[in-house]
Amino acid sequence: MMVVPYKEEQTGKKQQVATMFDRISGRYDFLNHFLSLGIDIGWRKKAIKELVSLQPKLLLDVATGTGDFALQALSLKPEKIIGVDISEGMLTVGRKKVCKRREDHRVELIGGDSENLPFEGNKFDAVIVGFGVRNFENLEKGLAEMLRVVRPGGKVVILEFSKPTRFPFKQLYNFYFKFILPRIGRWVSSEKAAYTYLPESVEAFPDGQQFVDILIRLGYKNTSCKPLTFGISSLYIGTK
């Protein structure tokens, strides 16, 4: 069953996700760091380290949101990073951050569909995604598109929430994720659906080996999965 933010609406998941992020864009960065206790910044650093040896010159950040992952990836000293997202609200916030950092000559954030990327094949040295693939309407189509646009020998690095399995962290995590986080999210953003959708979408997502199996089936090579922080999130890597 496909999980959507607004169950009462008849529109598709893609449109609903865009609407949801448009509505929470102004509070997204604060809530993202607050609700994850800042751990998400460290997760992105670990993901970026996977690309150091590759020394990528041209990167694509899929589902870039407000551009956090793209800006952190500047530590790799690439010539250009292009971020793509379906939410103009999130992109507007991201562009302001890029300009404030005076990095608009190296980071470009554009509107676009992650499942139909507006780029030719074999264009990028690496593709990064931070907590975005869970929101795809068609997961396999989005993953196939990332493989299409990365060059042979290039890497795709994906960060995504996952489900802890060990006692007692599994129980603590589930309580926080399902009861505490939605309440804080609603209180700060007044957008109930966004923080109900988050735990539901994580629960429905095929994480761990299931996700790796999908990557392999689509043609990714040298695949791996690295659980982070007791399995709250996972780092997936594949090459072309």
Q: Which shape, going by the Cα principal axes?
A: globular
- Which homologous superfamily in CATH is the superfamily? Vaccinia Virus protein VP39
Percent helix: 40-55%
What's the count of strands? 7
| SSE sequence, one letter per element | HHEHEHEEHEHHHEE
Beta-strand percentage range: 15-25%
Mean pLDDT across the residues is 93
Number of helices: 8
Uncertain segments of ≥5 residues (pLDDT<50)? none
Main β-sheet: number of strands, strand sense, barrel status? 7 strands, mixed
- Give the number of domains: 1
CATH fold category name:
Rossmann fold
Q: Please identify the top-level CATH class.
A: Alpha Beta
Gyration radius, rounded: 17 Å
CATH architecture: 3-Layer(aba) Sandwich
Spatial order of the strands forming the largest sheet: 3-2-1-4-5-7-6
Tags for this entry?
240 residues, Rossmann fold, 7 strands, 45% helix, globular
